[in-house]
Design goal:
The protein is built from 19 helices and 3 strands. It has helices at 21-27, 37-54, 56-59, 69-93, 95-112, 117-124, 128-136, 140-144, 156-167, 173-182, 189-202, 214-222, 230-242, 244-262, 268-276, 281-292, 294-300, 308-323, 330-339, and strands at residues 4-9, 12-15, 34-35. It is elongated, with a radius of gyration of 33 Å. The two termini are 31 Å apart.
Length: 341
Amino acid sequence: MAHRSSGHRGDLPVIVPARMEEAARVGAPEAIEVADRWHLWHNLAEAVEKTVAAHHHCLKKEPELEPEPSIERTASEQLRMAAEQIHATRQESSILVARTKQRFEAVTTLKNEGMGIRMIVRQLGLARETVRRFYYASSVDELLGAPRAGKPTMPGEFATHLHSRFNDGCTSAAALYEELRTLGYRGSYSSVRDYSRPLRAIGAAPARRQIPKVRRITSWMLRHPDNLTDDEQIGRGQVLAGCPHLEATAGHVKSFAEMLTERLGEQLNSWMSAVAADDLPHLDRFVRGLDTDHAAVRNGLTLPYSSGAVEGHVNRIKMLKRQMYGRAGFDLLRKRILLSD
């Protein structure tokens, strides 16, 4: 464990931070080590956050989280087709396309007249590699390439807001751009304009499902369900339904919280076995850490002692030491600590 913190001798608890573990064993060999419950929960929270991060991509693949998936697929398909049409139209009318067509016609005409690449370079004043590319192209479409499919992209949280406001009747790209800027958007106006153009083509914006961030999901899993709002409980339920690994993790967190708050240390071994049976590497590492300090952890989940007092003393000593940083040695620090009691 990262932190083993307390023990007791007779009826008097003896609180010991991890760095003083060896000294405690020498000075009080009969003391019972008790793991600090705050650090146990903190270490579990870190393992849960890493697990959520490892499985966050699973939530993006789950159509069950989307309302009315058949309707959404239809709207999304219309949006894709509109975006492709708009892109193709813009490509046809762009300056680059017009110039490419003009050069291809000129190179092809001179080629048909029997000129080689070197003479065409002199005639048109173009770079040799440019002429070579046009010279051997079978058509102008080969030079232009196929139009890109799909629509311009935008960060998820801003796209969700844009879709919602568009469906509320705010279809002006300029107005949407100003709203997004107030929310922290750092993209350009042209990006918002290009993104909203296909939406205007179909007259609506398909509802977007925003995936909660890793820390928000972690918070939902670590807090008691009674302390969650209705929306948070719905979001938590959707997330757990979208990934069996996260659902299993939430179950293990709930069981550990019950052990921690109700002092059910006798259930520690069965809890560790249940975690080891699932494919949850980060929680498994947490369990291996518990196993190295098994007795102290079991005591921490069973006995009423807390290291809150000793943590307060440690923070007080750190404060005194920082006040003297670079100006005094250990002897003065010792006197200040003794006199501050």
